[in-house]
Structures are given as C-alpha cells and as structure tokens.
Amino acid sequence: MAELLNIEGLSAGYGEAVVLHGVSLTLHAGQTLALLGRNGTGKTTLINTLAGATRQHAGSISLGGVVLHRLPSHERAAAGIGWVPQERNIFKSLTVHENLTAVARPARAGRSASPWTPERVYSLFPRLAERKTNLGTQLSGGEQQMLAMGRALVLNPTLLLLDEPCEGLAPIIVQELLQAIRRITREEGLSAILVEQHPQAILAISDTAAVLDRGTVVYTGTAQSLQEQPELLGKLLGVAR
User: Fold this and answer.
1) Which end of the chain, N or C, is less surrounded by CB atoms within 10 Å?
2) Do 59 and 11 touch, CB atoms closer than 8 A?
3) Burial, 152: exposed, middle or buried (Cβ in 10 Å; 0-12, 13-18, 19+)?
4) Cβ atoms of residues 193 and 47 within 8 Å
5) Neighbour-count burial of 238, counting CB atoms closer than 10 A to its CB (0-12 exposed, 13-18 middle, 19+ buried)
6) Which residue segments constitute the domains of the chain, with CATH numbers given?
7) CA 237, 240, 241 angle in degrees (round to 5)?
8) Residue 197 has what pLDDT?
9) Do the bridges between strand 17-28 and strand 159-163 make them parallel or antiparallel, or are there none, so unpaired?
10) Strands in the chain per DSSP E
11) What percentage of the chain exceeds 90 in pLDDT?
12) How far apart, in whole angstroms, are the C-alpha atoms of residue 139 and residue 173?
C-alpha cells in the first residue's frame, strides 16, 4: 500500500506560540486515521496545520509526494486536501446547490473511484437534496455539517480532514454522519483523518489511531487494537504527565 501522507518532526502553532512538538505520522492510501486526545492536546492544530491555517515552525509535510508545508491553503486544496473545519465555513448567503457548484473540481487523473459531484453528495445526504434551494442560513446545524462535508468532497480530494464533525449535534444526526463517513472511507476508499470526541465510534470506522498529549504523539497503532483495549484507551485519553 502506497504512502499518501508523511509528517516528519512537525512543530507548529499560532504566531510565536508552539502547540505541536515534533509530530511524526504516516498514512497510507485508502486508510483512515482516528486522531484522539483530550481537549487542548493539539488535534485541531494538527488538522489546521495540514490545511495551511497555522504557522509551521519546523518539520515537513508531504501528500502523495507533493511538499505541502510551503503552500498556502488554496494550493493545498488543489494538491488534494479536503478540509472540514469545526466552524464548517459554508457560504451562508448561497444556496446549498450554489455552495457545492462554486467549489467543485474535476476528479484527479488515475482515480479509480467515481468522482464526487453535487448529485453524488445529494445521494449521500438526501436531506441536502430536499434543501438544495435553501440558503446556508436556513439550514440546521446538522444540515450545515452535511453541506460542509459535501463541499469538501466535490473538491475530489485524496485526503479528507474532518475536525469533530459530530460536535453539538443530536444523536440521530451523529449516526447519520458516521454512516456517511463509513461509506466515504470504507466503501469509497477515500483516505481521511478524523478528530472526534466519540473515540469508540471513530475507532470502529478507522484503520489506524494516533493519540496526542500536550502537542506530542504518545501512541500510534491499529484502531482495532486500541478499540479492544478500553483500559489503555481510557489511560491515554485521561493521562496527566
């Protein structure tokens, strides 16, 4: 299995404040990584750094052999990064359909899976199909999250970054989103990094797992292994050094 993402010795943060310290991770094509850790341990900072939204102080990032750490956010998107931030960042003054068509890009050459189009997003999220003429301001929180995911998908990325996609949503919507993520990753084979406060839920749909504590990687391994060791998982997520 070919290596897709390589992070070596990454230190990054906001301005002069360094949040990540020497982070090194790899992700192979077609794999999903569950990124775990307590609040404030650097998970969102790592996602934001991959997307180009922080200041990188040291280290390197490459995606499919393309060096990313010198590229601005829009060029990282062109290189294959699909980013769904916590804030969702949909165009609230545009309709659902306009949000999707405004950012859609053709699939990359050599892609084996079917390309993501607005129509395929509607098949993934039928709620959006029912509301395609609604403005972003007229959507519920769950529908906005679906639209944010759809906007990332129609970029036809090689790596999808999902930062707490289920945060603050009703349990029935959480289950709908998790099923969609499973389809995108398990059935469609899109590589992804998932940050979520429901560790067992995302471990069940991930291949590998990494745990951050105070901006450093304290555990890497298979998602199944960590899922089968609840005591270790509890210790890693509650450890205080």
Assistant:
1) C
2) yes
3) buried
4) yes
5) exposed
6) 32-41+72-238 (3.40.50.300)
7) 130
8) 82
9) unpaired
10) 3-14, 17-28, 32-36, 55-63, 66-67, 81-84, 159-163, 191-195, 208-213, 216-222
11) 89
12) 13
Instruction: Tally Cβ neighbours within 10 Å of residue 157.
Output: 24
Asked if pLDDT for residue 45 goes beyond 60, the answer is yes
pLDDT of 110 higher than 80: no
Residues 6+ apart with CB under 8 A from 16: none
Identify residue 87 by its one-letter amino acid code. E
CB within 8 Å of 159: residues ≥ 6 apart: 4, 5, 27, 50, 63, 80, 81, 82, 191, 192, 193
pTM listed for this prediction: 0.94
Q: How many residues does the chain have?
A: 241
- Mean pLDDT, rounded, for 167-196: 94
